[in-house]
Every structure is written in structure tokens, then in C-alpha cells.
Write a structure and sequence with these properties.
- The chain has 26 helices and 24 strands.
- The protein is α/β, with parallel strands linked by helices.
- The strands form six sheets. The protein has a six-stranded mixed β-sheet with strand order 13-14-15-18-16-17.
- Helix 8 packs across helix 13, helix 16 runs antiparallel to helix 17 and helix 17 runs antiparallel to helix 18.
- The longest helix is centred in the first third of the chain and has 23 residues.
- The N terminus is likely disordered.
């Protein structure tokens, strides 16, 4: 029986704020010392693959100072360099490095720099394996077998960076992790590059939900981390420490119990013990066993975990399939509980929001009760939302439908908040009603749009969206067509001659309206109008507009169009209004002002703002709720008012009444209740607003002029 727990749900809803992606991956490998022969150096570095890959990742993450490589031929040279250069973050050594072998060299390094990681990179052969078994390798952090795959170097760097950042990123922020338990150098040298490749592919998939390049760079830091354990004790320690943020475990069946134990002391069923310990603590934790013995498949089946054979020809493919399915990578797949048939697939939050309301009740409860929904979100870096969903159980609700509605509400809220404070890159495939400010094109936003974008970021920075109970403070939904489309429109239609012509305003307007907008822009506008819920304001935003010392307010045209159900008609109205705003750059009054202000008309570029009009409809007219102008200085203070307190003029309806100097309500924000116009009934009747402007919603009323 489901029952309501109102207070518990309130606690869940208010836990966790926005994720600080900028605080992730703070510790990085900056400088790598490579100790090897000239031939090995060519293989590892000088063909350019290693540095190119590392530089590419840092560029995508918007991080400066990518790792650089320094190379020496002997361990003696390396020690001399380490004494001089304290900025080296990682030492990678091949086995043959001079009289001081790599094993004794590692101890010398730890004496100089106890926390400096030392990696042994060796070719896989019997002699090296025997040497490793005979030597004391306790000063070497990790040993890897080089197989000619450049991805291994990247995996080594990432593994160490994951280890350095694990406590902050996993425990403090909520980044997810994958635990790999393997004492075979050969196999973890193979697994790690493959797993990292999968993780990066997953990162590329969820980056599509980021709204702009900055969000993409930040979200990429949230990829799951890989934790490597080479013995039972280390595996248990890592599990206990990070189990709240663990996507799953990949473990060998047999391995040693303690670090640096000899290979002959390997416990043949240590992986079985680890599996039982973890499954007892968390029955839903994905666990993949791997063994060279096919007979262990039945043991894995009895434990209810996955299994792959190490010598399988399709080892990496099987590993990839298991991780993608059980670790919540890729699309979230809803399956029929009895038949296993796929009944729904969510590639992003939009799909998930829809499917939660559509899938059968038993499928919904199966996935929600096992925390599969939250795990999928964790793997995609959606920590705030995932934390809310992880704490939700069906026992918190009176019905399954109530639980569905709650989850959908949380997803909607997250998508909405994600869109605040950012200028999203308009993408027809991902644009939705939850994106509040987007740009079409790569050019300038123009002065007015830039100011709106700044206000949008300030509202988000100071949390105005839900700062006051029952009030949401936001900008109207906004899309900006950048200036590069203006340039393209002029060139494609051969309108350059207008710049120096003596054509009248009507002739210019006619020429612009009869021209065609760029095809790419039209395709984007077709998507945009599907999300328009009411009339639209098409506003100018030139490069010179809203300048500090040369204000262009009121110089260019603004057009308003009604919302129609016919998309073709709506597109025609919108396209015509955009072209009219473009044309206003070359009107006589604009030319005169540009010339008077010392600017050159050929340098002026026009962006266009498309914005929802806030208000309500009545009798075929649309009445904006309120319009106004606020000024930081009040040049005519009354009573206790001071100039620095500012002044506001407000009016019902369109703002034309305000900017034209009509009769409006005047007050100082510091004294909102001290309004001279309302001080007596006589003043109120005589000095307050008597007329207002509204928008005629008949499409034929929208004419360029």
C-alpha cells in the first residue's frame, strides 16, 4: 500500500543546489618526464599522437597549460633533472634505463619526491615478467605493458588524474566512478584504454544536452572516474569509500590479497568473496566477473552477476556491451519485464520526461525501485537531479501516478533552471520550451541583446528565479539572430548598393521585404515558432545600440506580430518583421543619427531579438501586463527623494506610452508607497494613466511600415 510522506518529499525536493562543474578536475598532470631510448621515444612521443591527443582534450575542457613531455635516456639523467625541476608531475620509465635500474631508480625518486607518481612501461615478454616478480616494486605506482596503442598513455594520465581528484570530485560533488579490480598487468593494460574510450563516448553523448560551448566544456569534467585496485584489500577500501557514487564493479576472479604479495599467493576465489561482500551490502550494484576459466560462468550466474572469458576473441566488445547496459551508459532502454522486448528508449531528458508517463506501471516501478533512473542521470553528470531522484521511493506516494508526476516535475524544473543565466546555442534538434535565451548564428549579439543576456546571467547568479515565494523573476523567452545573418542577407540579395544610395525609406523597405532570408535561418525559425505561445516582439539589437556614450535607443524599428496557428502564416509574418528591422538600419533618420554620432553606416551591423510578449488576450487584442522605464538617476526629486535613489515610470499596456512621454505612474524605488499622483483622489483621477496601447491580434493588421 502506497502512502504519502509530504515532509519527506519536501526534504528531498530541497536537497542539493546547482552543480559547480568548475570545481571538478582541479588537479592535473602538467609535465611528464619520459625515460627511454630514442627509438622508444619516437614510438611514444615524437610521432605526435600523444601530445596531440592530450592537447586536444585540454582544449575541449578550456584548460590552459596542457602536459608537456621532457625526455632523457638514463635514470641518472632523470634524477639530475628532478633535482632541478620541481614542476614534473609524472615519471614514465621504460625498463632499460642505464646502470641504475628502474626499480632502484623508483626508490631514489620517492626519496626526492614521495608523492611523485612513477610508472613502469614495459613490453610484454617472459624476461620482464620474471624480473618484475623478483624485484621489489613497492616504489612503483603502476606497471603497464606497452602494446603500441597510444591510448594507453592517455589512460595512464587519466587514471592518475582520477586518483588525485577522487576525494573532491566523487565525495564532494557526486561524480560517479567505476571500480576495476585486476592484478594482471597485461589485462588492466588492455582494459583501461577500452573503458576510458567508452567513458569519453558517453561524455560526448550527454554533451548534446548542454546548451552552449561553455556548458559542454564544464560538463565534460563530470565524466565517471576509473578506480584501479590490484589486490583485495585495496578493492574493499575503494568500495567502502566511494560506494555511494559507484556505477559498477569489474573484477577478476583470482588475485592477491595485499599489495606487493607474490603472484603465487593469489587467492583463486578472491573475486567471488568481493562479489558476495558487495552484493550483500548493495544487491543492485552491477558486478562483472572475468576469468580465464569458462567453468566460472555458472558461478557468476548463481551469484546473479555478469561474466566474460578473458581469452574471448570478442572480449572488448562484450566488455563494452556490459558497461553500456549495466552502468547506465548510452540510451536508457525500458524493456518488458516478462519478454525483454524494448518498449521505450530515452536518449536525453526530453525523452525520459515523456516515457516516465507512458511506460507500463510494472516497468516503471522495476526501474525506479532499483535506482536505475538516478544512475543513468549520475552517469551523464546530472548530479542535482540524480540526487533528488535517488532518494525517491514508491512508499512516499499515494499512487504510482503521483510518483510519475513528481519525477516529471523534477525533470521539468531541472531543465528549466538549466536554461536560466546562459545564452544557449540554438539547435533545432534540442531547442525546447525550457530554453529561455538562445542565439542563432555565431556573430555579435548586438548591444541590446548583450544587455539582456547580462541581466539574464545576473538573475541566475543571485538566484532570483525562486528567491521570493510564489514569484518567478525571469526574462521573457528570447532568441537572438546574430549579426552574421544580417551580413549574409545583404550579400545574398545584392543589397550592398543600399548603403550609398539615395533611395527613400519606402523604397528601401520594399526592397528588403521582397528579399529572401538565408535558408539556414528560415529552417531555424520554423522550429522556433513551434514553441511560441503568444505574440512576439521583433526588436533591433545593432552593434552600436545601447552604447554608453552614444545611445541608439529608439533609432531603429521594433515590430510586434500576433501568434497564429498556421505555421506558414506565422513564418511569413516573422520573416517580414525581421527584414523590416534589417531595413531600418538604412532609413533616413538612422543614417542621419549615425553620421551625427561620428560613426560609419557601413560598419553598423544588425542583430535581431525575438521575444515573447507578456500579457493577456481580450476581445481580439493583446494587452501587455505592464511596461516601464527605470533610471538610475532622478533629476527631479520630490520630498525625501534623492537623485541617486533613481526613478521609475510605469504604465499598463505597451511601452510606447512611456517612451513617448505619456501620462504614467512615477515613483522612487526607495519610497514605493510615497507616490504624489496617488496622494489624493483628485490627483489620482487627474494625473494617472487614461489611455493604453494594445496589440491587434488580427494577422492582417501586421503590416510593415
Amino acid at each position: 500500500m502506497l502512502h504519502s510522506m509530504t515532509q519527506k518529499l519536501q526534504d528531498i525536493t530541497h536537497t542539493g543546489g546547482g552543480t559547480d562543474y568548475g570545481s571538478l578536475m582541479q588537479k592535473r598532470i602538467r609535465k611528464i618526464l619520459l625515460i627511454c631510448s630514442s627509438y622508444d621515444a619516437y614510438t611514444l612521443e615524437e610521432d605526435g599522437r600523444i601530445e596531440v591527443q592530450i592537447n586536444k582534450e585540454y582544449l575541449e575542457l578550456n584548460l590552459s597549460n596542457p602536459p608537456s613531455f621532457s625526455r632523457v635516456s638514463t635514470s641518472t639523467e632523470a634524477l639530475e633533472l628532478l633535482k632541478k625541476d620541481s614542476e614534473i608531475d609524472l615519471v614514465i620509465s621504460m625498463p632499460n634505463v642505464g646502470e641504475l635500474d628502474v626499480f632502484h631508480f623508483a626508490f631514489k625518486v620517492k626519496e626526492l619526491r614521495p608523492k611523485l607518481p612513477v610508472i613502469l612501461l614495459a613490453n610484454f615478454n617472459r624476461y620482464i615478467t620474471q624480473q618484475i616478480d623478483l624485484e621489489d616494486v613497492s616504489a612503483i605506482d603502476y606497471i603497464f605493458y606497452w602494446n603500441g596503442n597510444a591510448d594507453l598513455i592517455m589512460a595512464i594520465v587519466k587514471l592518475l588524474e582520477d586518483r588525485m581528484n577522487a576525494d573532491n570530485d566523487i565525495l564532494e560533488i557526486g561524480v560517479q566512478s567505476i571500480l576495476l579490480v585486476e592484478d594482471s598487468i597485461r589485462y588492466y593494460s588492455t582494459y583501461l584504454p577500452a573503458i576510458y574510450r567508452l567513458v569519453l563516448q558517453q561524455s560526448a553523448e550527454f554533451l548534446h544536452e548542454a546548451l552552449n560551448d561553455q556548458q559542454q566544456r564544464m560538463r565534460k569534467r563530470a565524466r565517471p572516474k576509473i578506480l584501479l585496485a590490484t589486490n583485495y584489500t585495496e578493492a574493499v577500501e575503494l568500495y567502502e569509500k566511494y560506494k555511494q557514487n559507484l556505477l559498477g564493479v569489474i573484477s577478476d576472479v583470482g588475485f592477491v590479497l595485499h599489495k606487493n604479495d607474490p603472484a603465487e599467493s593469489e587467492k583463486l576465489d578472491a573475486g567471488i568473496d568481493l562479489c558476495k561482500l558487495i552484493k550483500k551490502d548493495n544487491p543492485n550494484m552491477p558486478f562483472l566477473l572475468q576469468s580465464s576459466q569458462e567453468s566460472m560462468r555458472q558461478v557468476a550466474h548463481d551469484l546473479g552477476v555478469g561474466f566474460i572469458v578473458k581469452y574471448s576473441k570478442t572480449l572488448l566488445l562484450e566488455l563494452s556491451d556490459y558497461i553500456s547496459t549495466e552502468f547506465a551508459f548510452g540510451d536508457f532502454v525500458f524493456k518488458n519485464i516478462e519478454t525483454g522486448k524494448v518498449i521505450g528508449r530515452a536518449k536525453d531528458l526530453r525523452d525520459m520526461q515523456r516515457l516516465i508517463m507512458e511506460i507500463p506501471e510494472d516497468v516503471f516501478l522495476y526501474n525506479s525501485s532499483r535506482d536505475r533512473l538516478s544512475k543513468w542521470m549520475f552517469s551523464r553528470g546530472l548530479f542535482t537531479l540524480a540526487n533528488k531522484l535517488r532518494d525517491v521511493k514508491d512508499s512516499h506516494f499515494d499512487s504510482v501516478e503521483e510518483m510519475r508526476e513528481y519525477l516529471v516535475k523534477q525533470i521539468k524544473e531541472y531543465r528549466m533552471v538549466q536554461g536560466y543565466g546562459v545564452v544557449a546555442k540554438f539547435d533545432p534538434a534540442t531547442y525546447s520550451e525550457y530554453i529561455w535565451f538562445a542565439r542563432i548564428g555565431e556573430g555579435s549579439l548586438g548591444g541590446k541583446a548583450r544587455g539582456l543576456a547580462f541581466i539574464n546571467s545576473m538573475l541566475q547568479k543571485y538566484n532570483f528565479y525562486d528567491k521570493y515565494e510564489g514569484v518567478k523573476v525571469t526574462l521573457p523567452r528570447t532568441v537572438v539572430i546574430a549579426t552574421d545573418y544580417f551580413d549574409q542577407f545583404i550579400v545574398e540579395n545584392g543589397l550592398q548598393y543600399v548603403i550609398n544610395s539615395d533611395a527613400s525609406d519606402d523604397e528601401i523597405l520594399s526592397e528588403f521585404v521582397s528579399s529572401r532570408l538565408p535558408e539556414a535561418l528560415v529552417n531555424n525559425l520554423k522550429v522556433y515558432i513551434r514553441y511560441a505561445r503568444g505574440p512576439l516582439a521583433i526588436r533591433s539589437s545593432s552593434k552600436l545600440e545601447d552604447s554608453h556614450f552614444q545611445p541608439f535607443a529608439g533609432i531603429y524599428s521594433t515590430y510586434m506580430i500576433p501568434r497564429t496557428d498556421n505555421e506558414d502564416q506565422m513564418l511569413r509574418l516573422l520573416s517580414k518583421a525581421i527584414k523590416c528591422v534589417y531595413a531600418s538600419v538604412y532609413f533616413a533618420s538612422s543614417r542621419a543619427y549615425i553620421q551625427a554620432s561620428g560613426n560609419v553606416i557601413s560598419e553598423e551591423k544588425m542583430a535581431v531579438i525575438l521575444q515573447d510578449i507578456c500579457g493577456s488576450e481580450d476581445s481580439g487584442y493583446f494587452f501587455p501586463t505592464i511596461s516601464g522605464v527605470a533610471r538610475s538617476l532622478n533629476f527631479y526629486p520630490i520630498g525625501d527623494e534623492k537623485p541617486e535613489d533613481g526613478i521609475v515610470n510605469l504604465a499598463f499596456g505597451l511601452g510606447k506610452l512611456v517612451v513617448d512621454g505619456g501620462q504614467t505612474l512615477r515613483f522612487s524605488p526607495k519610497y514605493p508607497k510615497h507616490i504624489l499622483q496617488l496622494s489624493t483622489p483628485e490627483f489620482a483621477l487627474r494625473d494617472t494613466q487614461r489611455e493604453m496601447y494594445a496589440l491587434d491580434l488580427k494577422p492582417k493588421s501586421s503590416k510593415p511600415r
